[in-house]
């Protein structure tokens, strides 16, 4: 996913603009800036790119999820439905608000199974979070319909799927709120950063205030601003925003490169009868950040994963045995290991997790191999990689 592979003169120019005027903070210091407002400019650019009315930059993708949920009123004791396959940031961001992550099965899209979502709804359910893992999406129409039916907030975590679309709409722009990450290994990067996008003005105003200690950002005297409600510090810096401002302008270039490399690899391994690919819902187009495919069983996937490593094929992941991205290895969540006491509501909400099983998720993740698509590969390197992958798969199944 990393946009950092193609850093160039545009990124350097934007960063040097910030260093030359000396203002690294996104708010205040109007007289020193010489007209440079990188965070504001990036928010405007993202609004156009993702076809959304409002954008609030924050310090990370994790912060984006917490700020999005908080802006919609999610808090203590509320349940948020999320998938078993994601990054640990998903449940961290929920729990930081005192809310309870409710994990449910994925389907062959590698994202939320709508039937599992419907079955998990209780009177405490406040929101559903679709995590668009590894460059693609789930059945957004089905999940959105469920949320509308039950009056639930629909949040899209599109941190790993920047540039993907569904029925012509950018991922992240379809739910009530969308979340993005711009950390060092995302398709476009700020180094560290994230964004909340929404068409709901109230949610945007809440996100704007909440992410900056509750500042209302009215007027041009920061010390005279009022604080309508409690907030925290999730601000992005001007330096981080400057890198992102250059990168977002290059997003079409990055997606085109990813698609080209993805297609070469997919076409090669598609000739192996035992290989099938993740389902992309009708109307969806991936961001091509990852190539995801299934093998016949868990044993085959483990053998192929090992063969890839032995053949020097890097950045291919078997998430079933990964410590960070699948529920199977989240012992610290299951056993509620925390530096500070968790609320009784969270404890009660998580108490069954250490005994809960997710056979359907195991069925898909156990057989899945997920290969990151690099943008720095030459055509020769991609073709050599495709040949090595085919040989390793055939020798392992």
Write up this protein.
The chain has helices at residues 9-21, 38-49, 61-71, 89-96, 114-120, 140-149, 201-210, 238-248, 251-269, 298-310, 331-334, 344-350, 359-365, 379-396; strands spanning 54-58, 79-83, 100-104, 125-131, 153-157, 165-166, 169-170, 177-181, 194-198, 276-277, 284-285, 290-294, 316-317, 368-372. It has 14 helices and 14 strands. It is globular and about 70 Å long. α3 crosses α7 (201-210) and α9 (251-269) packs parallel to α14 (379-396). Strands 1-9-8-5-4-2-3 form a 7-stranded mixed sheet, with helices on both faces. A 4-stranded antiparallel sheet has the order 10-12-14-13. Strands 7-6-11 form a 3-stranded antiparallel sheet, with no helix packed on it. Helix content is 38%, strand content 14%. The chain has 397 residues and is of the alpha/beta class. The model has no long low-confidence stretch (mean pLDDT 97). α4 links the parallel β2 and β3.
Major sheet, described briefly? 7 strands, mixed
Strand runs, count: 14
- Percent helix, as a range, is 25-40%
Mean pLDDT: 97
How is the largest sheet built, in terms of strand order?
A: 1-9-8-5-4-2-3
Q: Between the first and last Cα atoms, what is the distance in angstroms?
A: 28 Å
What is this structure's SSE topology?
Elements: H1 9-21, H2 38-49, E1 54-58, H3 61-71, E2 79-83, H4 89-96, E3 100-104, H5 114-120, E4 125-131, H6 140-149, E5 153-157, E6 165-166, E7 169-170, E8 177-181, E9 194-198, H7 201-210, H8 238-248, H9 251-269, E10 276-277, E11 284-285, E12 290-294, H10 298-310, E13 316-317, H11 331-334, H12 344-350, H13 359-365, E14 368-372, H14 379-396
Parallel strand pairs: 2-3, 2-4, 4-5, 5-8
Antiparallel strand pairs: 1-9, 6-7, 6-11, 8-9, 10-12, 12-14, 13-14
């Amino acid at each position: 996913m990393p946009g950092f592979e193609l850093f160039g003169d545009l990124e350097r120019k934007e960063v040097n603009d910030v260093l030359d005027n000396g203002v690294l903070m996104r708010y205040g210091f109007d007289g020193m800036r010489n007209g440079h407002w990188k965070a504001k400019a990036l928010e405007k650019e993202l609004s156009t790119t993702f076809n959304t009315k409002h954008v609030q930059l924050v310090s990370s993708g994790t912060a984006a999820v917490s700020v999005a949920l908080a802006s919609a009123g999610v808090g203590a004791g509320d349940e948020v439905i999320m998938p078993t396959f994601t990054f640990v940031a998903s449940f961290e961001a929920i729990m930081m608000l005192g809310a309870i992550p409710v994990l449910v099965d994925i389907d062959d899209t590698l994202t939320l199974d709508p039937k599992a979502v419907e079955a998990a709804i209780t009177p405490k359910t406040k929101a559903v979070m679709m995590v668009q893992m590894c460059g693609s999406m789930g059945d957004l129409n089905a999940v959105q319909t469920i949320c509308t039916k039950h009056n639930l907030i629909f949040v899209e975590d599109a941190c790993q799927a920047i540039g993907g679309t569904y029925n012509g709409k950018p991922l992240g722009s379809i739910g009530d709120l969308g979340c993005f990450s711009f950390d060092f290994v995302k398709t476009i990067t700020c180094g560290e950063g994230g964004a909340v996008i929404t068409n709901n003005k109230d949610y945007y105003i809440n996100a704007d205030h909440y992410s900056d200690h509750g500042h209302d950002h009215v007027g041009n005297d920061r010390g005279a601003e009022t604080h309508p409600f409690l907030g925290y510090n999730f601000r992005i810096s001007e330096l981080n925003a400057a890198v992102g401002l250059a990168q977002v302008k290059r997003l079409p270039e990055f997606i085109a490169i990813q698609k080209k490399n993805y297609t070469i690899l997919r076409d090669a391994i598609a000739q192996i009868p035992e290989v099938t690919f993740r389902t992309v819902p009708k109307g969806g187009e991936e961001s091509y950040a990852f190539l995801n495919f299934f093998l016949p069983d868990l044993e085959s996937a483990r053998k192929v994963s090992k063969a890839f490593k032995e053949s020097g094929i890097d950045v291919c992941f078997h998430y079933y045995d990964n410590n960070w991205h699948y529920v199977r290895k989240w012992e610290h969540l299951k056993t509620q290991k925390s530096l500070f006491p968790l609320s009784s509501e969270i404890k009660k909400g998580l108490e069954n997790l250490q005994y809960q099983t997710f056979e359907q998720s195991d069925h898909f993740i156990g057989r899945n191999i997920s290969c990151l698509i690099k943008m720095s590969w030459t055509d020769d390197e991609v073709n050599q990689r495709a040949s090595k992958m085919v040989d390793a798969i055939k020798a392992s199944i």
